[in-house]
Design a protein that fits this description.
Number of strands of chain C: 0
Shape of chain C: elongated
Number of domains of chain C: 1
Number of strands of chain B: 0
Shape of chain B: elongated
CATH superfamily of chain C: MetI-like
Mean pLDDT of chain C: 88
Largest interface: B-C, 63 and 65 residues
CATH topology of chain C: MetI-like fold
Structural class of chain C: mainly alpha
Low-confidence stretches of chain B: 1-10, 292-302
Strand content of chain C: under 5%
CATH architecture of chain C: Orthogonal Bundle
Distance between the termini of chain C: 61 Å
Number of domains of chain B: 2
Structural class of chain B: mainly alpha
Chains: A alpha/beta, B mainly alpha, C mainly alpha
CATH superfamily of the largest domain in chain B: MetI-like
Radius of gyration of chain C: 20 Å
Oligomer: heterotrimer
CATH architecture of the largest domain in chain B: Orthogonal Bundle
Strand content of chain B: under 5%
Distance between the termini of chain B: 31 Å
CATH topology of the largest domain in chain B: MetI-like fold
CATH class of the largest domain in chain B: Mainly Alpha
Number of helices of chain B: 14
Largest sheet of chain B: none
Chain lengths: 290, 303, 214
């Protein structure tokens, strides 16, 4: 029964390891000028009095919001935008508490005040605007195609009869069914699983927003290429609970400064391995032509 | 019959045979599916010998790919990554079975109740939940969660708590299975015991608490451990909604290193070792109590 | 909400689930019987390997079998189509449980019969075919029913490797129409498939009890 005892020891060690994983690091001191206090009773004033801003970001989207397993810190474009906002409010880019915001919970998070802002690759649309307020557009993504390097697929028009993978319950599924009705759409539990299936030769293409696909392409540039351009427009905005115009205004001012000063391109270069485009225009309706 | 029909020299116990066989199978798999390419290994011999052995450059390349695929398992970090998953798997399974025991006892007693308005709804509930695939239960609980959270604003539910959803779903399922085990355990006790306890002046509740349930639990320990093995396996279904347990961490590894054969083999071996050890402990306990009448361990048949 | 495409999806799902269950049921019955016989065979290595097969597959999650075939085997140059991958994964897994039932059945037959068969000069194969298996099959039908009920429920796991069965369609519907109660509906559809099986098992169990009454 030595095996059995050894295994028990193994399980205990595994448990200890789990318990020992360091919690996310706290704020580290970095100074700058804090903005003057906002009017009493506003959300912005509440944030200022608290001394830190609570931000919902993705933990699983490379380049935008990803929990790095080695450092146990979140990093990415969205996180850097959050840091700019914290720097503007407190003069300290680290005065942030991060919460994981997945697509299903991020709007309730804002509505019940769990977080102050949601910066989590969230597309602005009319339906969501009924539930929460949005800042100006800070990033423009679009649905695209990831295919094997040697693939003959060049655009969405080449997908007839091809096997195309995407995630269950995503807007990408609905878009691809509409735009390539003859494609054989297969649904996976996540994009990484779909790419693994393509790696096993089971799919001809994987489709979703290009910023997600770029991550896979950048990791294995010899295997994959992005084709077909952006065949939808997904303007990302920062979500804020309804009824806080002063906070929206503050966020928009930070975004405007980012875009104007060239800092936006810097953040892009830091996180995303393609040549930075011009920053997107502010108004999402203008972008999608509504 | 086995002994009667065999005249072979294999004199091992059945357990040892099974373990040996499983280990042989585990060792064969990598050779069967090219995870360890035999021809590739032969290319380590001097190049001059290659033509005679029918070896080509392709074989040498296959060896390189195999080495790259196994390489992550030479690193401590990979094992730590998987160990965290195993800890989650064991923790979720433990919490679910512990939570299920009081609930299952209540359900078993309700099912044995003499009042039909208690008995029938319990039977219906147990049978319906037992007929549902575990995966459906997990998804249903998970989706109801975000709804309940919206209505009540409960902060525990609101964070889209995958772990809690999996625990609740598995607890529900384990409760109905254990309820049946406990019921069978109570029924297997001699009727005389209850009567004797009652005649000593104990109330029904006292008789249950002091006489019936302690004996029942001792008897059903082996099937409970068998159910625990099922739970450890079922926890893997949580991966589908994003629970970071052992299987899901395996997925993340093969999605990263593109070595699904090797990673899934390693993860399967970990599950096998843990569950085999659990099964052995169930058998030891069974033997220890073999003096008393016992209930056979059920074959665990969940994913 | 489009009720028509809903119905269609669930109907496709139900048919696929039934197909998966029947195909995997038949294959695992054959494979499991063979392994069960090997488990009590007089040939040592066969016995060891067959016991090992049962021990291994009983102790690993079904999801791993399915993923190994779906994501792994193509790397070894073996690519099964989606439905076949599901059938094979489920069969390989379920065969271990069928083998256990068959073995238990074979072992429950008294020594006397075996010795009687021997005395009549029957070979091992003849004895299996003429004496043991016919008796065993009557005996194992109730426990096999339980195994197949579990198989029907287990087909839901194949949704993870994109087999378009009931669970997969339920997920599609839940995602597309934001209607989580579809899981409840799908759950009851599984109940509808397994209910007749469960009743059959019950009837058979009662009958065999009557048969055994002395």
């Amino acid at each position: 029964m030595k095996v059995w005892r050894l295994l028990m020891v193994g399980i205990v060690i595994a448990g200890l390891l789990a318990a020992c994983t360091a919690p996310p690091a706290g704020t580290s001191g970095s100074t700058g000028k804090a903005m003057p206090k906002a009017a009493d009773g506003t959300l912005l004033r509440k944030i200022q009095d608290r001394g830190k801003i609570v931000v919902g970001v993705k933990y699983d989207v490379p380049m935008f919001g990803l929990l790095n397993p080695t450092s146990n810190k979140v990093e990415g474009f969205d996180v850097d935008v959050a840091k700019e906002i914290a720097a503007a409010i407190f003069g300290n880019p680290d005065a942030i508490e991060y919460k994981e915001a997945v697509s299903k919970n991020r709007i309730p998070f804002l509505q019940d005040g769990t977080v102050d802002l949601v910066i989590s690759t969230m597309t602005v649309n009319a339906e969501r605007e009924g539930q929460i307020d949005f800042s100006n557009v800070y990033y423009l993504a679009g649905q695209s195609l990831l295919v094997p390097k040697a693939s003959a697929i060049a655009s969405i028009n080449d997908l007839a009869g091809k096997k195309v993978g995407t995630a269950k319950g995503s807007t990408s599924e609905q878009n691809i069914r509409k735009m390539a009705p003859k494609a054989d759409v297969q649904l996976f539990d996540g994009y990484a699983e779909a790419v693994a299936a393509m790696d096993a030769g089971r799919l001809d293409a994987v489709t979703t927003d290009d910023n997600i696909l770029i991550g896979f392409q950048a990791k294995e540039p010899n295997k994959w290429k992005l084709v077909g351009g952006q065949f939808t427009k997904e303007p990302y905005g920062i979500g804020i609970a309804k009824g806080h115009p002063e906070t929206v205004e503050m966020v928009n001012k930070v975004l405007a400064d980012l875009k104007k000063s060239g800092k936006w391109k810097e953040l892009y270069k830091k996180n995303i391995p393609t040549t930075p485009p011009e920053p997107p225009i502010d108004n999402w309706r203008q972008i999608v032509g509504q | 019959m086995q002994q009667g029909m065999t005249r072979s020299r294999f004199r091992m116990s059945e357990d040892r045979q099974a373990l040996l066989g499983a280990l042989i199978l585990i060792a064969l798999l990598p050779f069967l599916f090219g995870m360890i390419p035999i021809k590739g290994l032969l290319t380590l011999l001097p190049v001059a010998w290659w033509p005679a052995l029918g070896l080509t450059v392709e074989n040498a390349e296959a060896l390189q790919i195999a080495v790259a695929n196994w390489k992550p398992f030479l690193e401590w970090g990979t094992w730590r990554f998987l160990a965290l998953g195993l800890a989650m798997t064991v923790a979720v399974s433990l919490v679910s079975i512990v939570l299920s025991l009081p609930l299952a006892t209540l359900a078993a007693l309700a099912r044995l109740s003499s009042h039909s308005y208690v008995r029938w709804p319990t039977i219906a509930g147990i049978e319906i939940i037992r007929a549902f695939p575990v995966l459906i239960l997990i998804f249903y609980v998970f989706t109801q969660f975000s709804r309940v959270a919206e209505v009540t604003g409960s902060s525990l539910l609101k964070s889209n708590n995958v772990t809690l959803a999996v625990i609740i779903a598995l607890t529900l399922y384990t409760t109905v299975v254990n309820a049946e085990t406990i019921r069978a355990g109570i029924l297997s006790l001699d009727k005389g015991q209850t009567e004797a306890a009652r005649s000593l002046g104990l109330s029904y509740a006292q008789a249950l608490r002091l006489v019936i349930l302690p004996q029942t639990f001792r008897r059903i320990l082996p099937p409970l451990i068998a159910q625990f093995v099922t739970l450890v396996k079922d926890t893997s279904l949580g991966a589908i909604i994003g629970l970071l347990e052992l299987y899901h961490r395996g997925q993340i590894l093969y999605q990263y290193y593109r070595n699904p054969l090797e990673t899934l083999w390693v993860v399967a071996v970990i599950y096998f070792l843990v569950n085999y050890a659990l099964g052995q402990s169930a058998q030891r306990i069974e033997r220890r109590f073999s003096g008393s009448r016992r209930i056979a361990s059920q074959v665990s048949l969940e994913p | 909400m489009n009720a028509e495409s809903w119905n269609l999806l669930l109907r496709i799902g139900l048919i696929t689930t039934a197909g998966l269950s029947i195909a995997a049921g038949l294959i695992s019955l054959v494979l499991g019987t063979v392994i069960g016989i090997f488990r009590v065979s007089p040939v040592g290595p066969l016995r060891v390997l067959a016991s090992g097969y049962v021990e291994f597959f009983r102790n690993i999650p079904l999801l791993i079998c399915l993923a190994f075939i779906f994501y792994g085997l193509p790397k070894a140059g073996i690519t099964f189509p989606i439905f076949e991958a599901g059938v094979i994964g489920l069969s390989v897994y379920t065969a271990a449980f069928v083998a256990e039932v068959v073995r238990a059945g074979l072992q429950s037959i008294g020594h006397g019969q075996i010795e009687a068969g021997r005395a009549l000069g029957l070979s091992y194969i003849q004895m299996l075919r003429l004496v043991l298996l016919p008796q065993v099959f009557g005996m194992v039908i109730p426990p096999l029913g339980t195994v197949f009920i579990a198989l029907v429920k287990n087909t839901s796991v194949a949704s993870a490797i994109v087999v378009p069965e009931l669970m997969y369609q339920a997920e599609v519907i839940a995602g597309r129409y934001f209607y989580p109660n579809v899981f409840l509906i799908a759950g009851f559809m599984y109940l509808i498939i397994t209910l007749p099986l469960a009743l059959l098992v019950n009837v058979m169990e009662k009958r065999s009890q009557i048969g055994h009454r002395r």
